[in-house]
Write a structure and sequence with these properties.
The protein has one domain. About 65% of the residues lie in helices and about 0% in strands. The chain has 18 helices and no strands. α6 crosses α8. It is globular and about 60 Å long.
């Protein structure tokens, strides 16, 4: 295996934008990594990607997981070594920082006027870590190394599904809550696996499927292992019985295959049709919970039969009425659940940010999401594989923004930053001290 974070000087032109430019570097020119601190930073980043969706590995009820520890530790090491990239998204960096600043500024301003500033500091710091710190960390990785990160994520999610599937078959429900919590396997048989809840588990599968296709395309994983991983992910998705997870996975697969190669999409469609036909002909039943929460909605075409759609629709209707009074200045962070007649935040990120942060915050959020689409799909003409997987993962993220409240947990944003690093990470296998200067440039003599 090639050494990570080599100090070698690239043989090709500096600043190549094509993803395969790094492949033109003479392998003999790659010197062994001489900095053990940077090697540690790399492996901490890999650990963070592997456990990105293992939300159960956390400090009690505090939103600080093993992934957070690994990623923040890697960030600290990279920063102390002076290797942190100044412009993670190139010329779009200033727009990204401005958009995130509007989101955070709107939330803080509204909270200072109407809410609890101490609570705002906690939420704003979580958003800053997720959307700023992780962006700088992931885009500081040399692109050749970044192309290996999806494999760690896919293996982590697959292992999570294996744990959940085995537990659902071998253990009783009464034995699980004391060790894993109520969401690991719910009372009606849905599995949350190591994600901790069924719906986030469905999201982790939706994120992992396009990355698995990418890993097989880049030969990071052999078909002998990739195909079983695909079926394990699919079985975990079915057992999670999440309509949003199932639909977003299907959409992500269509986008990935269509942008990779239309023939792949046609072949996959035929294979799926044959597989479904064989399953129906066998008479084997689907899990009852999946049939109830997902199958009925698909068969009838009535989305109101999917999961807890009715309850969420009531929250959304309430949020629209409340937004009339919070259109400019919001009610403040975490005030929605206090004011709501349902004692819950609306499961729609746009409406929640609008109500709690006002016009400035919702404007910042909208700009962030537009930039995510531009930074992913915009790369497709020149970086087909990377643009396809990045676009699919970003679309999954966008789907969940209409079905979840605050999304600062790293299980949501880490997969997005991971796939963006395939496009926007350093084009050469060198660190900033050799690839670009840090700080003011010296004046010419």
């Amino acid at each position: 295996m090639r050494e990570f974070y080599s100090d070698a000087v690239p043989a090709g032109p500096e600043g190549m934008d094509q993803v395969d430019a790094v492949d033109q570097v003479d392998p003999a020119a790659r010197a062994p990594a001489r900095d053990p601190v940077m090697k540690l930073a790399w492996w901490l980043l890999c650990v963070g990607c592997f456990f990105a969706c293992w939300n159960l590995l956390r400090l009690g009820d505090i939103n600080f997981t093993l992934t957070d520890f690994a990623l923040l530790s890697s960030l600290v090491l990279v920063t102390l070594r002076g290797k942190l990239r100044q412009s993670p998204f190139g010329p779009l960096t200033v727009y990204w920082i401005a958009a995130v600043g509007c989101l955070l500024g709107g939330l803080m301003l509204s909270t200072l006027i109407n809410g609890d500033p101490l609570r705002a500091v906690n939420v704003i710091s979580q958003y800053a870590v997720a959307y700023l710190a992780l962006a700088f960390l992931f885009m500081s990785v040399p692109r050749e190394q970044a192309r290996r990160l999806p494999l760690f994520f896919v293996v982590g999610v697959t292992l999570s599904q294996i744990v959940g599937i085995l537990a659902s078959q071998l253990l009783t429900f009464d034995a699980l809550p004391d060790f894993f919590g109520n969401g690991f396997i719910t009372g009606n048989g849905r599995i949350g696996a190591m994600a901790g809840e069924p719906n986030p588990n469905g999201a982790s599968v939706a994120f992992a499927m396009p990355m698995l296709i990418y890993c097989m395309h880049r030969r990071l994983i052999r078909p002998l292992l990739g195909v079983p991983a695909f079926f394990l992910l699919g079985w975990g998705l079915i057992l999670s019985a999440s309509f949003t997870g199932f639909s977003s996975t299907c959409i992500a697969l269509v986008i990935t295959l269509a942008l990779f190669n239309w023939r792949w999409l046609a072949i996959a469609g035929v294979a799926a049709t044959v597989a479904i036909g064989l399953f129906v002909a066998s008479g084997a039943p689907l899990p009852a919970t999946f049939q109830e929460r997902v199958g009925n909605a698909i068969e009838t075409g009535e989305i109101d039969q999917a999961g807890t759609f009715v309850n969420r629709a009531e929250l959304i209707e309430e949020a629209w009425h409340l937004a009339e009074h919070n259109a400019i200045i919001g009610m403040g962070v975490d005030e929605y659940r206090v004011i709501s007649a349902h004692d819950n935040p609306v499961h729609n990120l746009y409406l929640l940010i609008w109500n709690e942060g006002g016009a400035l915050a919702i404007g910042g959020l909208a700009a962030m999401l537009v930039l995510l689409l531009a930074m992913s799909f915009g790369a497709w003409p020149t970086m087909r594989a990377e643009g396809a997987v990045a676009g699919a993962v970003v679309v999954v993220f966008l789907i969940y923004t209409v079905s979840y409240p605050h999304m600062y947990s790293r299980q949501w944003i880490a997969p997005v930053m991971l796939v963006l690093s395939l496009i926007h990470a350093r084009a050469a296998n060198v660190w900033p001290s050799q690839f670009e200067s840090i700080g003011p440039r010296p004046l010419p003599a």
